[in-house]
Amino acid sequence: MNQIYSLLDVILPFEWLSFEFMKNAFLAILLITPIFAILGTIIVNNRMAFFSDALGHGAFTGIAIGTVIGIFQPIWSAIVFSIAFSVLITIIKNKTKTSTDTVIGVFSSAAIALGVVLVTFGGGGATKYTSFLIGDLLSIRAQEVGLLLILAIIVIVLWIFFYNKVLLVSINLSLAKSRGINTLAVELAFTSIIAVVVTVSIQWVGLLIINSLLVLPAAAARNVSTNAKQYNIIALLVSIVSGVVGLILSYYFDTASGATIVIVSSVIYFITLALKPLNS
Amino acid sequence: MEEFIGKHNGKCELNKNCCGYCCTKIQGFSVKIGKTEILKDVSLHLHCGEMTALIGPNGAGKSTLLKAILGEIKHEGTIVFAGSSGDNVGRPVVGYVPQQLDFDTAAPVSVRNLFTACMSKKPAWHRTSQQLSQRILSCLGRVQSEGLIDKRLGALSGGELQRVLLALALEPMPQLLLLDEPVSGVDRKGLEVFYEIVSKIRKEYDLTIILVSHDLDLVQKHADRVVLLNKTVILNGPPEKVYSDKRLHETFGLSSFFNSEHREDGGKNNEPNI
User: Fold this and answer.
1) What pLDDT band is residue A203 in, cutting at 50, 70 and 90?
2) In 10 A of CB B149, how many CB atoms?
3) What is the residue extent of each domain of chain A?
4) pTM of the entire structure?
5) Under CATH, which number does the domain A26-209 receive?
6) 3-state secondary structure of A164
7) Which residue of chain A comes nearest to B96, CA vs CA?
8) Quick one: average pLDDT of A196-216?
9) What domains are defined for chain B?
10) Contact A227 B118 (CB under 8 A)
11) Is pLDDT larger for residue B249 or for residue A54?
12) Which residues on B lie below 8 Å from A227 (Cβ)?
């Protein structure tokens, strides 16, 4: 890790990058923003923005359950809970004719209510959990950067090998089925990986804005692209650029990094929205 | 009929292009959804190189029959694909063009991406190789739509989308092709082009084609056999025979004729007073 730090000092000798916590946050941004961009393009294509929002709620409940049980680190029980939560929503969504929005709405509300009840049980306040609402990117530690690296590798491998299947599923389920794709398996794999990413990163970016980080780069890219290549490249660029710019701005203005990043990507989104008529 | 089969089998032996699945027998197909009976005891015998048009009023079960053949819907009855000598040769490759492709028209997915996703292992966001581009172009060439390769799916007209989906259904080349014609969204010119293309493909590749159609004129021009369906098979035979049958007008005439006349008048036509 020290070698990476000194390498950063040589390549990017800026004031904002001189502290170790900023170096960690910077590395985390470089890993987490591509993950968000890749998953975001798929979420937006599948019209699942509301779903990923619900996953954030599920992750919070998972952390609450983990804290109450207290056997192992809350993060692991949170991951298990989130995966179970996303699998349950996906299966029910596929089995019933109820509108997807309704199913997700019900689950999301039930999960957050359960989480709040658990953490306030016995008269305790929920204040120590408010950090999960906003998140603190600067609290990230070196070993957690390593965890993000593993996640990034998993997501990129899946992105390369399963993109075509996911793309066909997002165009039309019957079409995908007629091409011999096990659509439920693809959906489950994909929602589970989103669940894991959301759960792991919620402590750094916060429940309130995590969905914006997932959805905004893809939504911006969609405004100005006509094919999958442009869509993916632009989403990646928007995500990484707004991540780095947001982090620098948050350092100088002394604001919460996650929210600052979201503001930068929102600005980019509105710029692409203004460009849209020229392209279509 | 006998004579036709004899002639056909002869053709199969001579023609190297023959798919080898010389007939498709659908026997006793029934579909129930809840308590509603949609199809009852439908039996059909189809030959390769033959285009069968499925006609019938709205709600007659035409699309349902196609989906039952595809295995997307639970059904009773059997389907047998038999070779020219009459032996069962297992499940053939089936191509299907749905009536409507319900998709997000704002999605940044091009025709090239769609074909890449179906034909290649490389992710669709990757640059397509020269070789793959050629293969996609030759697929689109079958439906005279090479120029659409870099268009966005959502930007295609109804007729263009139908042709692209047909090209996709022909890769890999199926032995049984099921086409469900859209009720709306394709103009007259587009429809004529579509029928021309389907006729050409049938001759070139010797496939069995089942086409759900709403256009009796074009059916008469292109189909070898017409099946009138209304829950069950009412008429089955060559177009001229079916079209002169009184039962066609009985099933079709009153309901659809009346309605279409009504629509053309924009509702100005006075309803008969009762």
Assistant:
1) confident
2) 17
3) 26-209
4) 0.83
5) 1.10.3470.10
6) helix
7) A178
8) 90
9) 2-93+173-256 (3.40.50.300), 109-168 (no CATH)
10) no
11) A54
12) 108-110, 112-113, 150, 152
